[in-house]
Structures are given as C-alpha cells and as structure tokens.
Amino acid sequence: MYTASTAILEALVEAGVEYLFANFGSDHPGLIEAIAQARAEKRPCPKVITAPTEMVAMSAAHGFAQVRGRAQAVLVHVDCGTQALGGAVHNAAKGRAPVLIIAGMSPATQEGEARGSRNEFIQWIQDVPDQRGLVRGYVRYENEIRVGANAKQIVHRALQFAHSAPNGPVYVTAPREVLESEVPRVTIDTKQWQPVAPSGLNADAAREIAGALAAAEHPLIVTSYLGRSAPAVQELVAFAEQLGVGVIESVPNHVNFPTTHPCYLGVQWNERRQNEALARADVVLVIDSDVPWISAVNRPAAGACIIHIDADPLKQQMPLWYIGATLQCQAEAALALPQIRAALEEFATDPERIARRHQHLAAEHDAWQVAVTTREQPRAELTAEYLVACIRDAIGEDAIVVSESVTNFHVVSQHMRRTKPGTLFSSGGGSLGYNGGAAFGIKLAKPDALVVAICGDGSYLFSQPSTVHWLARAYQAPFLHVVLNNGGWRAPRQAVLSVHPDGIAARAPNIDIHFPEPPDYSAIAAAAGGAHPETVRSVAEVKPALERALRAIRNERRAAVIDAHVQ
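Below the sequence we write its predicted structure tokens.
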C-alpha cells in the first residue's frame, strides 16, 4: 500500500528530516505500518527516536535545530500528547527553533466506514472541539491534513513556515482514517518549497543608521540571539572593530560576540541596577533581542537615539512590547550589518573619535574581565562562579554548553567566557525543563562534540531526567549534566524581594520554595540510564569529579551527572 502515511514519511526525507522523535499512540497505526514497510523495502526513512515523554522529545528537536538549523519531526498522540508538549512548544516558539510537530486525531468515523475507524473507548474521550487551538498561539503555522492526496504538500508548506524568519515550530494533524488512506504518488520538486529568502535593509535605512553611529560619541549594540547565525557574529565583530562600538548581551540565547574581544562589555540579566554602558550610550542599536533591557530598573538615557533591527521587529506574538525606537527595520543581521558598513563610506568618520572609543572600550572590557576573574576565585564555600570556571577549563572552547541555570543564568553566561558561535545555547523561552532534552538532541546533531548541560536543581527536575538519561543510553548520546543545587527554587524568592522588599515573606525563613529532603539527582540518572554519578559539596571535590565524569563520557560512552551543592 502507498498511503498518506507513506507520503508523509517521504516528505520528511525529501525535506532533510533525519529524526522522528516519536511518542506513538492509537492514532498512529498508519504511520507505524509505513515505517515498517519502508524498513522492509530498505527505503529511506527518518530514524525513529522513541521518546517516553513529549516534553523531552520536543526539547531534543529544539536542541538539534539550534546547532544544525534544520527542523526535525516530533510525533505525538492526539490532544493528550499535544498538551504534554506543554512548555517545550513555548520554548521553541520564543527561541525561534524550527520544529515540525505531527499529531494524530481521533478517528472521524465510528461505524467502520473507513480503515482506521474508531475501535477503542479513548477515541471518543480524546475527540476535542479544537485540538489545533492548543498550540495556535505558539506555532508559525497549523493545519489539518483533511485528504491524504495532498499530505506531502502540507508537510512541505509547514516546513516552509518553520524555516522562514521568524523561524519557529509548526503543527500538522490528521485523523486516523486519513493516515490510513491509499493515495496516488506525488512528485515534489523541493526547489519550489524553499523558505522565504532573508531580507536586508533598504538603502535609506542603512544610511540613517550609519550616519547616527558615525556621529555618536558612545554608540552601543545590544543583542540576545544574533548568534543563531555564525556569519552574523563575524559581521558584528567586523562592525564593532571598524566603528569602535561596544556590545552588550542581554539574556543571551547564543554566543553573539566573543567574550574576550575588547569591544565586549558583558551580560545583563535581571539585575536590579542600571547598566552603566547603557546609561552612557547616545546611540543604541538593538539587533535581535526580545528584551534588550528592563526599563523599570535599567534603560538608556532619555535623549538616546534607539534603532532596532530584527527579523520580527514588531514582536507579533507579544501583546505588550516597545523600546522607544525611532527607527525599526525588518532585516536579517548578517545582511544588515555589511549594508550599514558600506553606507558608512558616505560619512566622514573622525579617526580620533574612533580611537577614543576603542581606548574607552578596552578599559571597560578589562575592568569587566577583572571583576569576572575575581568572582570565580575559590572561597570557603563552593560557589557557582568557581564551579562554572572549573567546567570551562575542563571542557575547552569547542564543547557545546546548554544553559538553563535560572538564577545562575548570568553566572554561566559570564563565566563560561565562550568565544565561538554555536558553543552556548539557552532555550530562549521561559518554560523550565529544556536542558536535558536539548543536550540529548544536540548530541545527536553533533555526535563528536562534548555536550554539557548546566541547570538548577529545580530545572533538572523539570527536564524529566529519567527519560533524558534513558534516551542518552538507548541512543548512545552521552553528555555531561551539571546540577547547580542550591536547595530549591531561588527565583520565587528573588521575585518576592523585588516586589515586597520589606514584606513579611522577605523575612520569613520558609516560603515553600525549598527542597528540605532533595532527591539524589545523580542517582536518578544512574538508575534510569546508567549514568556516572558524582556529588560535590566542596571546592576540593570539583576538579577530581569533573575528571572522572569526563573520563566516563569519553572512555565508557555513558553520560555523567554532577550534583554540585553550591552556596
């Protein structure tokens, strides 16, 4: 038989999808049969990764897309599987990660009218009025395959949306009878299904931006996810060097700029203070950032000129968003930056001014480096800063780091001191639990790379570590998982202090956010996936534990978990 399910699998192969992260259900017999048929006939088919939980499956596809730039497929079961994707869909949407989600639907018939008609009681219970509505606010495209004859076209159309800026997840559903239906073969010319070509600036905008930056005394660039494109990072470095412009990362999702470069001025996060470089800037160019600053506590000077470049400058999925920009441009950074540099030829740049900028930036960068180095020195108690510095030295510059360390987010961003694009990722969203699945997905995408996930104890539990480490062993994708264990959820306490600094909760010893009898985090991974377990509580234990953990990954081909009790 050649069915709609066969056509869907062929479409995935045509589109370059390598993995199908699958949580099979009773709505998938057609797909299961088509996969078995492809294997029996030795036809190409995506490799199936059996994912016991949907959140991990989606996070794995998210991580894969971050390092390879291509959507992988996630297969889930009707409305229940879709809901179980939960926060992972939010993360992929906010992190601009292309992922194709395929969900079955309850059969549309109940009297045996077609192959696949209802034959289990849950098929009435799982038939809901608007299954696609569960994810409509988060996906770039959603549709139902109503007839099998155009299943291929719908898959390719969905992937066009996923890979067009702004990138993101897409969602396609089909009832069981449609997946079972026999259809004619359709030949696809993949050249006709390419994503929308990226766009640059118009000439007038490029000249306006170039003029403003050339005339500025203290220009500044703020970015968060420009580093999703390695060429964009190279362009930003050349741009900063030519003009003497400082670069700040605001809640970075990627390596946007080498942290050792003299133009680099550090990371800002949820700090309750004004960033001095931002306050001093007379021209601020925001490129690829959702939250360039938090205006209640940290913002540019009142008279500063703010210019904004982004693939989605209106932030169409954010109901409340504005930064006071007088010029907003829809463009890709890798195209916009060289256009601005070319436009600078029309303006007379003052060499002395550029030299002053570079001198000032070098001094600011050196001061930042000294502060970071000071904070990561060993103390009497184990600090997150010291631990992250030890991880950095142990893993080297080429290792890929996944960060979901929540209240220590800025610690990882600063003290990892990454210099190469594609070596540090966060989810880009706000739903915890991305870290383990993403590390697994990245390891599948880069099997020769050393992958390290750094997370808090709360986000470790959110990541469903038993599933993560079962997958790591089952599919031979070992990585290092480091838990910054501070005994509970510190983020809610920080939130309380920011709103009620003198309240009763601020003084209370217990506000129900601590884990007084915490799980044995490394033992969870050891039991579920044979991971190498380590627990460290002191400075002296850190480096030997890292050596043993890395040896287990490299020599024994098994994951390792370090449960680090930090101050």
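Residues 376-565 form a domain with the Rossmann fold fold (CATH 3.40.50.970).
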